[in-house]
Design brief:
With 121 residues, the chain is of the alpha+beta class. Helices cover 32% and strands 27% of the residues. It has one domain. The chain is globular.
Amino acid sequence: MFQTEYQFKLPKGYVDDDGNLHKEGVMRLATAADEILPLKDPRVQQNPAYLSLILLSRVITKLGDMNGGSVTPATIEGLFASDLAYLQEFYQRINGDGIVMVETKCPKCKNKFEVDIGLGE
């Protein structure tokens, strides 16, 4: 079966208006509409950096125990910078080819090599 949703855990977490911390969530694969429709949004036309906020709000289907479960651009605006960077990288990873190579070093022999840490199936 083809996987279309992926779980994630934010490094810091989203703090809602009541002070509750939400760290775990679910992101679905993006559709063409997810990437194209936000371009018509006036906020994106005034500030192209806003595109990623709208895009993430469309593809994140769950974030913690948030009442109503709706993730809006305002929710994404409220993230800590490190969580936003994490979600942008996570989005690229699941919507790309799934291959993420990381250079590492053997703790015993000190030999450097690359490891595929892709999401797999």
